[in-house]
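Input protein
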Amino acid sequence: QFHLSPLKVILEHDTQNSRRFLEKLLNESSWTTHFPDIYTTIGLSHLLETSYTKADDSFQLALSINAAFVPAIINQGVVEYLKRSYSTAEIFFRKAKNMESSDSVALLGPVLSALESTSPAAIDRGNLDTAMTDLNHYIGHFFDYQQQAELLLATIYLRKGAHELASAVVKQLLNTDPDLTEMHIQELLVDRRLLAWDQLQKYCDEIYNALSQSPTLTAFRGYCYLRSGQEEEAHKLIQLAISQQPKDSLIQSILAF
């Protein structure tokens, strides 16, 4: 049951029952070696309940036992991100990254933090340069969450005024097979809601509203809706794009996914 607790917390949102069970294990010396995992899972349960202080306290307890327990560090970044303390969140994400974490939340977290701390209308976008470097490295070395990374890259190009590059990345995203980017064999004890499509929808909207309208852009917006679970609206937009450009194989392929 201990090994199923993270799954129950994350997939079933069974936070209270899982927490009660895990807290009992903290009183048993035979579970001492698992205390960082247990405290981190308890922290996740608080995080899902938006109890950020309790979540952070639990992650700190995990780190007091093992200072190099990367999932707890990444989750500290998630806490700060959700609290909109983006510069602090980036510190935690980069700390995990510097500990050679290959978890996508650690690697893409700094990019998300940079985007959230930079207004689309801001004149000074210098802090996006590092984020763009991070993204290009990620896309070149990792395939997991590839489409999400491409979406973030298109957003950065857009904010830097490089609309043609943003459009090119949108096409690249649509041409990426999503089935090949969803083999999320990553750390179970990390809250990865930051990379969920419903959380990223705002970047899809930003791109759609800023770029010149085209069937490809309409299909892109439909695809974003599809990935975020808004299937009815998604199919309307994709069918509209197909009717506008019926011989476009890229647009035709979206529904095949």
Remarks:
- The chain has a mean pLDDT of 89.
- The two ends are 36 Å apart (CA to CA).
- DSSP finds 14 helices and no strands in the chain.
